[in-house]
Write a structure and sequence with these properties.
The structure is a single chain. This protein has four helices and four strands. The termini are far apart. Strand 1 and strand 2 (about 20) form a beta hairpin. Strands 1-2 form a two-stranded antiparallel sheet. Helix 2 runs antiparallel to helix 3 and helix 3 packs antiparallel against helix 4. It has helices at about 25-30, 45-80, 85-105, 110-125; strands spanning about 10, 20, 35, 40.
């Protein structure tokens, strides 16, 4: 605790106390921590660290796939709202592909994807 040079960081402890530690210690500690949405959590085992890394990767992938699906559905709804049947049919083909991929990756249940495709097909078919 005697080394309070500018190259120090603080770690908050219980009861709102903080201690100063050298920065190189701080980065060594962070090597064994999981940082998720601004929260630092210390894992007790290497397997828990691995699980934390896997969870972060999977969360990012799921978020990306969900966003891709929502964008495809929004594009489809906009094409239908415009009233352009040819554009809607093209958007429908792309949306069906995205729905199938989402079902394959587990973002949507297969029956839910089928229901979406059926309803979208009916809306495209009803266009003039």
């Amino acid at each position: 605790m005697t080394n309070l040079t500018p190259a120090c960081a603080t770690l908050d402890h219980a009861f709102d106390r903080s201690i100063a530690i050298p920065l190189e210690w701080f980065f060594d500690i962070l090597e064994f921590c999981s940082i998720s949405e601004g929260i630092i959590s210390m894992a007790n085992h290497f397997s828990a660290l691995k699980r934390a890394r896997q969870t972060e990767r999977r969360t990012a992938n799921n978020r990306s796939n969900t966003s891709r699906l929502r964008t495809a559905l929004r594009t489809m709804r906009e094409a239908i709202a415009k009233g352009d049947k040819q554009g809607a049919e093209q958007a429908y083909r792309q949306t069906v592909s995205t729905l199938d991929k989402a079902a394959q990756k587990g973002i949507l249940h297969g029956n839910t994807a089928g229901r979406y495709k059926s309803r979208l097909a009916a809306r495209v078919g009803a266009m003039k």
